[in-house]
Amino acid sequence: MTKNDKNLTLNFMGVKPASFDNARVIILPFPYEGTVTYGSGTQNAPNAIIEASSHVEFYDDELDFEPYALGIHTLPEMKTDFDSPDDMFQSIQEIGTKLAESGKLVIMLGGEHSITPGMVSAFAKIYDGVSVLQLDAHADLRDTYNGSRYNHACAMRRVLEHCPSVQVGIRSLSHAEKRFIDYKQLPVFFMRDMKHSDWMDDAIERLSENVYVTLDLDVFDPSIMPSVGTPEPDGMLWNDVTTFLRKLADRRKIIGFDVVELSPQEGNIAPDFLTAKLIYKMIGYTLLENRKQTESVNIQDKRGIDMANMTVKTYVLQLTDSATELTCAMKIDPELSTSYREVLDKYVNIINKEIMTPESEKNLSIIQDCIYKIDDKGELLDLYDGIIVKHGDDIVDLDDETTYEFVHPEDQNGFMLLDLAIDRSQITEEGNPYGYNIRQWKKNQDIFEKFVTDCITEKHGSEADRILQLDTQEDKKKFLLAISRKIWESDFELYSRFIGDKQRFKDPSETLKNIISGRGGTCTEKSSAMKMLTDVYGFESEYLLGGPGAKGPFPANALRKMLTTMDFSLGKKYMAYWQHASLLYSVDGEDVMIDVTNGNVPFLFLTGYDSVLPSLGGTRSVLPSLGGTRIEELLNPNNKKSVKVRMIMDNEEFYYHVIPQDIPENLITAMQDWIENVDLINVFDDGLGLLIREDYYVCPLMYHEDDDKLKQYDWWLEMKDQKKLPAVELLDNYSLPGTIVNEFEKKYPQKFADIVEAADYLAERYNESYRESADDPLYNVAYIFVKLK
Asked: Is 6-293 CATH 3.40.50.2000?
């Protein structure tokens, strides 16, 4: 066992405490020493036991099992400053009742034996048919002692007031106690008789189904347990006790137990260790038998982890990427992977569809691409340097042994959980965007190849087979023209971020699948999808960045600083320079600039010579003023030209820049993983709304009260008159759309259905991010439909 943190000794076995709800075992230290009559020191016992337990091996060779993995939660020590033993009894009865109601295995560490009756009384109130097994050298059946009914010498007399008992190992008692035993015909197994009879089965038969065990350590022979207040010779040995307890656990249900009367001796830690190991054995005996008896369960995790037919013999790895909050879970074999590194190598690096649900498979595929380096063939390599693996709040050494937690959902059987989180915030290596694109293509190769073939066939007909060979510069440009035009024709939209998988920013493959389904993406998403396709077909390309009014020079250092710090308030004036993305290709030495954005940005397919390419079957630009424009005129850092674009209400001049590629690559990574509200920022802060077409603009309107909604609608009506827009209409009742919305629905039925579907999650996201407190009223969502032509 490895002890990495001194604070772990606060929990029994030195392990990280399971939460109370998830723990199967609850340890209650109770260092009470108020009525001792001979040797003292029991008040030091709980600390000594817990300290010794941190040196007990996790693995129990007798049971072939690691009982700690079922989850152990050690409560704070109970206070012991009671006015009287009676007050002590009342206090422990109160906390004992709450613990008994939890249904967990409760273990009390004494302290002296006087603490037992209070706990037994609590269990007797909660459980039907409780009996108590006492292992002890002393009968402890006096009615009073030293003026108290709650003296340690009276412990079992008080127990009998709540339930029957069986006493084992007795070899010291008063004459009055012997008369009481005879009169009540109590089942007492004296040590002198236990040596000559098959007493174990007889003792167990006299116990009821639910058994509480109280173990006074002086039941052991002083040769192995000298650290007790009143050591009695000729006691039980280790194998006698453990054999009996395992038989008991096999035939009865142990609902709780206490271990009392250890009086630690300075310089002799062996009795402390024996006690800790005995408790660990009892945990194993008790819960191993429960494990054997459990039946299959049906569990559905809130994140979609299907755990049908799992039992506590089932081991589950749950892995969460902290950045994306994506989670996957799978059944694993703990014997095949004993360290965290082996678990990652066997179950995370390779996807096995047979041990996980499709949802987990999908999420793991995304997580893999984030945590492993990727080569140029799209294959996974080693973990990135700087990856941090956490188990709970603790950072783990990948070569450490794995530790599992027993999870026991309410009204269901449990299973063993290895719950890991991946922290990527400290990665020190650059990724491989090219390899990433190749990998994404391979995952969906059949779908994407069909898309490419369909684009070329639709655009170039009988020439398609030849063009797909990409043998000539002319065919390569025709290939690019067909693909880019098809992507440009798809919607410039954000509504799909709030439906389906609800991805806040889509990677290249997700965007392309979205386009194939009839939707679209933003300029950056669509450009990255175009780049993925052309990377696969061997084209050299790089991103261009720019935006409205961003003439230059390009502020590379300022933008890098924002990406490094993730503080985008550092220079808002610079952010226009990465509001827009397009691509620059080198085709056999010739530059080709392509903008696939749409959303009122014209389709650009410019060469170093001319923007009009009749030989490619192209069409002139949407903007007549662009005809004849050369790439150099748009990208020359000195006195560059702009592309004039009419967005929603205003004419804007877009400028493009050739830039260092680390900036767009890191920007895309930030939007995919690190900018938490990128979906809301794009919709609201950037003013992109949910859909921009040449004929319509649709945006959400967030409001608390109807008056607020109508004020915002009035503002839009004023803009309509000012900007001479054809029409503006409010949609706040989806079953009663107005004239403009009806026209939109008739023309674009699927887009309308998607936009309406997005409303609920859009409102949820907005309330989650923009409400300052839970006491604030919820935002509602309506839509503004703006007719642009």
From this structure: no
